[in-house]
Amino acid sequence: MFSFFKKKPKPEVAPLPESSAPTESPQIEAVVATAVATPSSAPPAAPAALIELPAETEIVSAPVAAEQKRSWLSRLKTGLSKTSSNLSILFVGAKIDDDLYEELESALLVSDAGVDATHFLLNALKKKVKEDKLTEAAQVKAALRSLLIDLLSPLQKPLVLDQHQPLVMMIAGVNGAGKTTTIGKLAKHLQAHQQSVLLAAGDTFRAAAREQLTIWGERNNVTVIAQESGDPAAVAFDAVHSAQARGTNVVMVDTAGRLPTQLHLMDELKKIKRVIGKGMASAPHEILLVIDGNTGQNALAQVKAFDDALGLTGLVITKLDGTAKGGVLAAIATTRAIPVYFIGVGERIEDLQPFDAADFVDALLS
Fold first, then answer.
1. The whole model's pTM is what?
2. Domains of the chain with bracketed CATH
């Protein structure tokens, strides 16, 4: 596992006031009362040592074995091969002329980098070639690598822990993006960093989602707040208060998949966010959008729509082990610049890792 979390000192927490149901909807109080936590997986209250920290500290994971990192980078390169094969071949014995720039422009557009990012990179590359008097194809490729890393580096940001008690995370995305699986993997990673976790099954309409989350909970010994039907906002509200009562470090709220064009469902997401805020005034602290890496330019539309509705704090890009083009991260960096906390290249726990701009660019240009 790589290092990807950062802890900050926790401010003093005022005594927890008596909880009361939110007034968002007259049905919420009754629904909250019927939300059920999985009793067999309830962890003990977190000891103070997990919460009280000295000056800001970067959490460092155990060293990653060289073979494990090579395996991870190999799977990332395989997933991005559709883009890398188009880009790398351009620089084999190429002359530095207009034809090269035209071919590079086409390759970037095909990779879903988008018009703005493509023009930015081409203009910057031409300027660098001229200023540095680059004459070899390998030099131009190295210059492009440097420009891509500079463009994507602002997306590389650790998830900060212990700023809030509990840290409340709301997870959104379209159908099939991998939200529930991502939550399960994140729960395991958080536990590895001495964080107690509680999950809220906010997808109250799809039984399979609740069952899947419950399985993750049982596997990781994590409490799951769930109910068969009703208001997902109520489940989230109950989860926040349960975490406060238990002294749990992190709450992750799963939500039902929806398309940005389904306005009534987008309104439901806004309601969930509002009701979470009634359970804890500063929450949710993180609002993550899970994106299927094979979505291409449509991912940019998803980011815009969910960001406009919720105010996203981070992204998780999944399924980069498929036929992902990868260039869409350049488009995101050029337009919204929302941090990419994690990228995934498979189904295993260790296949979800923090986004590293240099590793990602090297996979694109390998």
1. 0.81
2. 35-43+68-366 (3.40.50.300)
